[in-house]
């Protein structure tokens, strides 16, 4: 496929664009992920909390693609954080996926009130040392959480997956990540498909390039060097969302998109999500 790779801080290559499968039922995940793999996707973002690791894994196995050609991300849910619990929980995810390693394992949320992300990360370091997770990272970590992790543990996260789209651009987090060699991955990259895609600025840019608003947004992410994992269960949209490698937004387009930042989240605040 024509999706470029981002090289993570441990040398692992990760396709810059993949499919997210939040809110996809386990039974549906097999056909949705199967369609995406057939359409050129080589990265899939699931989580234990999505309850579709089994259906996702089935699609990967049934695709017939060599294991090393598919990049699989899953995540540990808050209630399973803790050293021993993480090791057990990881085994259960692998079993459901039907795989013997994952490409990227993420702490889904820092859940600061639980105060377990440091010990959870130490278990992640063991999974990485054992080669069962080829890269380890976090999700929804603010710079304060990342700073503490880097002070109290050995390995700098390869990735931080955060809410990120033109209406919530996270300048401070992105700057912190680049300073420390952490790749920024955008969740809800399309703003969950709600109001964002109806923004008139996107409409104008879409008409200018003969593309859809979703494609303009994905192009913005790619040009900002984000990893991006748009979700869709609709085959035509799955195809549309990966068909973004043959046009370029110019400086003026990028400037207009920069102006859309509202500073407001659609999702939960990591400080209070437990
Ligand atoms: P998204 O921003 O990817 O939006 C998906 C929605 O946009 C779809 O349900 C559909 O309604 C619409 N859509 C998709 N393609 C479209 C197109 N081409 N044209 C018009 N509408 C289109 O939302 P998301 O699912 O929240 O985020 C993507 C992925 O990010 C998730 O599936 C999940 O893997 C990940 N995620 C992670 C976290 C986290 O806490 N780490 C939180 C949310 C999402």
Automatic annotation (TrEMBL):
Family listed: Belongs to the aldo/keto reductase family.
Keyword ATP-binding: no
Ranges of residues in domain NADP-dependent oxidoreductase: 17-260
InterPro entries, sorted: AKR, Aldo/ket_reductase_CS, NAD(P)_OxRdtase_dom_sf, NADP_OxRdtase_dom
Top-level division of the source organism's lineage: Bacteria
GO-annotated molecular function: oxidoreductase activity, acting on the CH-OH group of donors, NAD or NADP as acceptor
Organism of origin: Streptomyces carminius
Catalytic site positions: 50
Protein name in UniProt: Oxidoreductase
Binding-site positions, substrate: 108
Keywords: NADP, Oxidoreductase
Site features described as Lowers pKa of active site Tyr, chain residue numbers: 75
């Amino acid at each position: 496929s024509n999706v470029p790779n981002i090289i993570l801080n441990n040398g692992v290559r990760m396709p810059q664009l993949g499919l997210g499968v939040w809110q996809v039922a386990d039974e549906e995940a097999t056909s949705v992920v199967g369609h995406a793999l057939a359409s050129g996707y080589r990265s899939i973002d699931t989580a234990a909390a999505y309850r579709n690791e089994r259906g996702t894994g089935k699609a990967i196995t049934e695709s017939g693609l060599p294991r090393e050609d598919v990049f699989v991300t899953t995540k540990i849910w808050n209630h399973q954080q803790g050293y021993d619990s993480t090791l057990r929980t990881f085994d259960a995810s692998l079993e459901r996926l039907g795989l013997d390693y994952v490409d990227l394992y993420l702490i889904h949320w820092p859940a600061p009130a639980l105060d377990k992300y440091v010990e959870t990360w130490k278990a992640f370091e063991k999974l990485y040392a054992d080669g069962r997770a080829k890269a380890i990272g976090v999700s929804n970590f603010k710079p304060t959480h990342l700073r503490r992790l880097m002070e109290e543990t050995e390995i700098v996260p390869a990735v931080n997956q955060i809410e990120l789209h033109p209406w919530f651009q996270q300048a401070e987090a992105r700057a912190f990540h680049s300073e420390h060699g952490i790749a920024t991955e955008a969740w809800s990259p399309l703003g969950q498909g709600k109001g964002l895609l109806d923004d008139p600025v996107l409409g104008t840019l879409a008409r200018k390039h003969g593309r859809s608003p979703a494609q303009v947004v994905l192009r913005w992410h790619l040009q900002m060097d984000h990893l991006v994992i748009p979700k869709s269960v609709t085959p035509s949209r799955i195809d549309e969302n990966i068909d973004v490698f043959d046009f370029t937004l110019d400086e003026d387009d990028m400037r207009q998109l920069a102006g859309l930042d509202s500073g407001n989240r659609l999702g939960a605040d990591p400080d209070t999500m437990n």
